[in-house]
Write a structure and sequence with these properties.
- About 25% of the residues lie in helices and about 20% in strands.
- It is an alpha/beta fold.
- It has one domain (about 5-250): Glutaconate Coenzyme A-transferase.
- Helix 2 packs across helix 8 (about 235-250).
- The chain starts with 5 loop residues before the first helix and ends with a helix.
């Protein structure tokens, strides 16, 4: 019986992916937890950049919103939001953009805008784009993190808030998007990466205890699976202790 939860496994896997990176534009929620864990445990020099303008934030607890005062208090610098986007983000100066979403499709397009076919009268109106479209377009690469459910992993997103690979190979170039786009999707079941030829998300790792049948059942399209499907390394005691301390807060 595992001594960790599926969400802890997801967060730890995402944090490991930030080893060796120098800068990360991070959103509130799951990505923020993973990025702060990475900075505490694996990559102390990782510069966390928040949409509020906090550069090099080192919060002692998980921030509750982009306007959380501790982000500014612990940052190396605080600049205006236009400066964040105009100087740091859009010219491609940020290494990793770390995002989540309500919906994701096989080409890693993201929806955080509406659920439902009618934009003017949706079933659910979501928080919206924020800086996600620019992050997805301009960061040198993008990591995604979300729970693996059929409601989230859909055949086609109801609204393209942030472009992943659009309709497939060549789409990002046609749109003039600067960054490589999504290179990694970490879920509570496993890890997906885009196929280098088709750009379709492909399951490359299953977390310990997860089953391929569960991954397929939780995906709204015919899930591509790597021929050399691997198992994610389980969490270490140190990773679990640091994560739990971070979540608990001071």
């Amino acid at each position: 019986m595992s001594t960790w939860t599926a969400e802890e496994m997801m967060t730890i896997t995402a944090a490991r992916a930030l080893v060796g990176h120098t800068s990360c534009f991070v959103g509130i929620g799951l990505p923020s937890t993973a990025a702060n864990l990475a900075r505490r445990l694996h990559n102390p020099d990782l510069v966390l950049i928040y949409e509020s303008g906090a550069i090099g934030a080192k919060p002692t607890r998980l921030p509750l919103s982009i306007g959380d005062g501790e982000l500014a208090e612990t940052a190396d610098a605080v600049i205006s939001v236009p400066e964040v986007f105009n100087y740091w983000l859009q010219p491609g100066r940020i290494g990793v953009g770390f995002l989540s979403a309500a919906q994701l499709d096989r080409y890693a397009n993201l929806n955080t805008t509406i659920i439902g076919a009618d934009y003017r009268d949706p079933d659910v109106r979501l928080p919206g784009a924020g800086g996600a479209p620019e992050i997805a377009a301009s960061c040198r690469e993008v990591f995604l993190m979300l729970r693996h459910t059929r409601r989230a992993f859909v055949e086609k997103v109801d609204f393209v808030t942030s472009v992943g690979f659009g309709d497939g190979p060549g789409c990002r170039d046609r749109l003039g998007l600067r960054g490589r786009g999504p290179v990694l999707v970490v879920t509570d079941i496993g890890v997906l990466e885009p196929d280098p030829n088709t750009c379709e998300l492909t399951l490359t790792h299953l977390h310990p205890g997860a089953e391929l049948a569960a991954a397929r059942a939780a995906t709204g399209w015919a899930l591509a699976v790597a021929a050399d499907l691997a198992e994610t390394d389980p969490p270490t005691g140190e990773e679990l202790a640091v994560l739990r301390d971070l979540v608990k807060g001071p």
